[in-house]
Amino acid sequence: MRQGFFITACIACLICQIGFAQPGSRFMQLNKIKLENLQHQILSLKTSISSKQKQRNKVNQELQHIETIIGGSEKQFKQTLHALGRQTTTLQKTQKKHRHLQAKLNQQQKALSEYMKAAYMLGRQQYVKMLLNQEDPEKINRFIQYYQYLTAARLKTVQTMKKTLQQLEATTYVLAKQAQKLQSTKAVEASQQHRLKRQKASRRYILRKINRSLSNKKARLQQLIANKANLQHVLKNIEKRSYYFAPGHLFSETKAKLPWPVRGGLLIQAFHAPIADGRLYTTGILIKTRAGTPVHAIYKGKVVFANWLRGFGLLTIIQHGKNFMTLYAHAQSLYVKVGDTVNPGEMIATVGNSGGFQQNALYFEIRHDGVALNPIPWLRKRA
Question: What is the 3-state secondary structure (H, E, C) of the chain?
């Protein structure tokens, strides 16, 4: 900027000198040469500024691309981990059932063995002998009943064992299938984890390029101003549409009653906090928490924006009716899309550091008629 003022001043001075110089004089010719040189310098400076701006835009496009991919990959990875957990639990239940059936079969085998032994000890010859010897009728009757009981018990045990064996065969087959599926899911999880590492390495490289392009305070201030302008442009486009009417209580009646968008977390930046050496002020709050923490909608509404925005990363904007909106930025992954109707407490995203942010945190805003409000008075007091 100072170079531009200096060059402009030099041009003005030379024009004055040319105006007072005699036509055709050597002094006028020299000044014309100097003016031409300065014009070349101005053109070169403008070209350099334009080139740097294009380079910044290109790097930000790269950041948008990689962070959008990472967001999708993180979401898939989390779903795979959940599937892995479910499959592990199912496998453990099947293994428990298998062990129970095996123990049951062992008991049945033992019982059958006892019945066989008792029948052998009783002996068929003794049965015939007792009948031929015409012993006491009551004793014979008891003997016959006992023998019939052994035969029936043995038959019933054999049938039960057959059923248990069939169940064991079925659970053995299911166990093999579940173990195979689990191994397959583990392979997918390992592949996704490896891909995520590569994607995050690419993101770190892009962030280094961005930091090099924003090496001074002036460039960083311009970046912040541009980011705020991008958000204002998005909000104006949203405000032009017909607003969503939330049934039930009006948003304006929920002051001090709304839930926090994340459970736990540390408030590390308050509303209207000075940034960029006090030249700008924040229009929301920043809640630091671990990556992947669920982000919840604080009130019923309609998703009107769910995309990557420069300076805010993966951003969700929800319209709540009567021109109230809430904004949730720097997400790791988005779980809703434009047009979705969400309920209070519904998971809409996960906490991350998208938008080139350095730490995992949720940036949160409440707006009414496009004006940012301090979210703290609207949220419930924390214990």
Answer: CHHHHHHHHHHHHHHHHHHHCCCCCHHHHHHHHHHHHHHHHHHHHHHHHHHHHHHHHHHHHHHHHHHHHHHHHHHHHHHHHHHHHHHHHHHHHHHHHHHHHHHHHHHHHHHHHHHHHHHHHHCHHHHHHHHHCCCCHHHHHHHHHHHHHHHHHHHHHHHHHHHHHHHHHHHHHHHHHHHHHHHHHHHHHHHHHHHHHHHHHHHHHHHHHHHHHCCCHHHHHHHHHHHHHHHHHHHHHHHCCCCCCCCCCCHHHCCCCECCCCCCCEEEECCCCEECCCCEECCCEEEECCCCCEEECCCCEEEEEEEEECCCEEEEEEEEECCEEEEEEEEEEECCCCCCEECCCCEEEEEECCCCCCCCEEEEEEEECCEEECCHHHECCCC
